[in-house]
Amino acid sequence: MALLSRILLLSLIVIANQALADFAFAPAIEVASPDSRQLLDIVSLDQRVLAVGESGLIIYSDDGGRSWLQAAVPVSTTLTAVFFVGDKKGWAVGHSGVILQTTDAGLSWQLQFDGNKANRQYLEFTRQGEIQLRRELASPEIQALDDAQREALEYTLEDAGFAVEDAEEAVNKGPADPFLDVLFLDANKGIAVGAYGMLYQTNDGGVNWQFAGANINNAGRYHYYGLAVDKTGTLYLSGEAGLLYRSADSGVSWQRIEGVYDGSLFGVVTTANSVIAFGLRGNIFRSDDQGKSWSPVVTSNTYGLYGGAVLPDGEIVLVGAGGAVLNSRDDGATFTGAIQPGRSTLSAVELFNQHIFAVGMSGVERVEQREAAQ
């Protein structure tokens, strides 16, 4: 009976996983009041503001945020981030490893990449790593090492074998891990990052996405949360457990920045003169030398900060848990804070039509009324 029970349990797990996968890759269902659903990112175009969120939801407004329409989306999985190059071409990423593209300013979307492809690519990467380690261990140079050195390398090979097993299990279970941010340097070169060290790049506008985790130091496969680029083209990447990196070659290689913070850094924004990283418990860190050195920014806010934007006039706006909204008008040297009346957690913020819009657990919120720039 015990064996039969285990077989039945495994069968139920397989069926449940298949059902979840079927739902994730079914077209998003049209919903009432889509601007009141959970939304995770927002972007402004020339005449349109657009947001993404739960259950494949992509909504847009062409009347300054007074009314919102739902776009046609081929997936029902949660979407976490969106990025546009120009006003027509954009990408959205999310759970189940999905990457979507639009070429009509977000009216319709096509699936470019998914977690099945991501899992297969990562499995191939781990297999090749294990093969390479076996070759190295069999070489005369390694055989000539003392016992302690060889034993250390054998432990490394054992870890590589575990990595292959984990990757095989992910392929069998199906897509699960989410992408959490996406950024394009131009219409062709883009980067998508996410949970458990997911880092994929494209050089052809997303026609092909390739695993790019070989040239970054993240052996523990911690999550990547946020991407940003400064005026020089230097890239910044933040993540779990204090992960912070910079890249001066468009993401071909990454330099790990050590010792800034031990907690999660959920995002990065850049101004003309500074780089701001923010995250857990309201922690903010600032660099004025392109990420080479960092210093903490002291505020009274202790709420986690999840999203941020730099407005056209240089003002920095950060948002987070409990409706926290922080503003800086001195390149992030100091911040003032406020709490949105509803105190709902906010995940992203954007300026459109002289108004600041934030999105989060309660949908779209207008943060403040802004006067036209003089």
Compile the SSE list and pairings.
Layout: H1 2-24, E1 39-44, E2 49-53, E3 58-61, E4 69-70, E5 79-85, E6 89-94, E7 99-102, E8 110-113, H2 115-138, H3 140-143, H4 147-173, E9 179-184, E10 190-194, E11 199-202, E12 210-211, E13 224-229, E14 235-239, E15 244-247, E16 255-256, E17 265-270, E18 275-279, E19 284-287, E20 295-296, E21 305-310, E22 316-320, E23 324-328, E24 336-339, E25 346-352, E26 355-360, E27 363-369
Antiparallel strand pairs: 1-2, 2-3, 3-4, 5-6, 6-7, 7-8, 9-10, 10-11, 11-12, 13-14, 14-15, 15-16, 17-18, 18-19, 19-20, 21-22, 22-23, 23-24, 25-26, 26-27
The total beta strand count reads 27
By helix and strand content, what is the structural category? alpha+beta
Which strand order does the major sheet show?
A: 1-2-3-4
Straight-line N-to-C gap: 78 Å
